[in-house]
Write a structure and sequence with these properties.
Blueprint (H helix, E strand, L loop, with lengths): L1 E9 L2 E9 L9 E10 L1 H8 L15 E9 L9 E5 L14 E4 L5 E2 L6 H24 L8 E4 L4 H12 L4 E5 L5 H8 L3 E4 L1 H4 L10 E6 L3 H10 E9 L13 H5 L3 E4 L10 H11 L2 H5 L2 E5 L3 H9 L6 E5 L3
Parallel strand pairs: 8-9, 8-11, 9-10, 11-12, 12-13, 14-15
Antiparallel strand pairs: 1-2, 3-4, 3-6, 3-15, 4-5, 5-7
Helix pairs in contact: 1-10, 2-3, 2-8
Length: 328
């Protein structure tokens, strides 16, 4: 038996609860993992609270991330005792996820934990940090250098934004943080290394198609009018890595920034990233998001608190990363 968060929908009533399950209840897969840590991401919070249409079938164990040790395997790529992690692949949406003591998944969805890291570190990084590293890598691949000017990070108080800010600051970039939490300004300067903080209201309302050139590049976690204004304010030949839709899925923009300034809008998806590319991204994420750095950015909670943490995250009462200890 093991504990898990389980989401059910009966007669239109949606409910998440802590339950005990037998291993026989696990879905199909060729690798079984004993989970040490998971995390609560924005998508997990939507799933647990029912505030967003994340879960595709019921009952569902949420949790798009997990890390632990292989305890059974029919995969040629993984052996009992291997330390593994998983992010994405529809886990926690269409396939039972990581907010549980155990999981059974396809081996092709797993990545071995880097030798210099452990389960807690990679879950403090999680999908948020993995996505942030993908965003930063997009900027690096575009050729953006620290001397080109400041880089904007929207939603900087959230998981992806805070991780992106730290990585960029560590690499020597001057980071401007956009946030709706002005009370966190000192924390962002001291712990994330940001140089400037602006209120998200500067970017969240409809704006002009082309605006003053302010940033060499940007990481946007918000979407909608914010993303439109960011694109309109990036300097010539700059790039915007877009990975979120906290404000909305719409993009009320014009082609002006793209054809008059050569701005690149690069979409970032962390769910279906090719398995072969993942180890290198994880190595880099662990290099920049060290346990020392993550201790300032994350907080650990027991599995029994996962539902409450999800509610607080959506209410803006959780900053950084919420790591969930899944062992009893």
């Amino acid at each position: 038996m093991f504990k898990a968060i389980q989401i059910d929908k009966t007669d239109g009533q949606y409910a998440a609860s802590l339950v005990e399950l037998d291993e026989q209840a696990l879905p199909e897969g060729d690798v079984t993992v004993e989970i040490d840590y998971s995390s609560i991401n924005y998508k997990d919070a939507l799933a647990i609270t029912g505030r967003g249409p994340i879960v595709r079938q019921f009952p569902m164990v949420p949790g798009i991330d997990f890390a632990g040790k292989v305890i059974a395997s029919d995969s040629a790529d993984f052996a009992v005792g291997d330390r593994v992690l998983l992010t994405g692949w529809g886990v926690g949406e269409r396939h039972w996820g990581g907010l549980a003591g155990k999981a059974r998944v396809k081996g092709e969805w797993l990545t071995k934990i880097p030798d210099n890291a452990d389960a807690k570190q990679v879950m403090a990084i999680g999908t948020a940090g993995f996505t942030a590293m993908l965003c930063v890598q997009a900027l690096l691949d575009h050729g953006v250098k620290p001397e080109n000017g400041p880089v904007l990070v929207t939603g900087a108080g959230g998981g992806v934004g805070s991780c992106a800010a730290i990585i960029l600051a560590t690499l020597g970039y001057q980071v401007t943080a956009s946030t709706g939490r002005p009370q966190e300004a000192d924390w962002m300067r001291d712990q994330l290394g940001v140089s400037e903080i602006i209120n998200r209201e500067e970017l969240s309302a409809p704006g002009k198609p082309l605006q003053k050139e302010r940033w060499a590049a940007a990481v946007d976690t918000v979407g909608s009018h914010t993303l439109s204004n960011v694109c309109a304010s990036v300097r010539y030949d700059g790039i915007v890595a877009a990975c979120g839709m906290a404000q909305g899925m719409d993009l009320p923009a014009t082609v002006a920034p793209f054809i008059l300034r050569g701005v690149t809008l690069r979409g970032i998806d962390s769910v279906m990233v090719n398995s072969a590319k993942r180890p290198a991204i994880w190595e880099k994420a662990c290099q920049y998001l060290t346990p020392e750095v993550l201790s300032k950015l994350s907080e650990e909670y027991p599995l029994t608190d996962a539902i409450t943490v999800a509610e607080k995250l959506l209410d803006g009462k959780i900053r950084g990363r919420a790591v969930i200890a899944c062992k009893a």
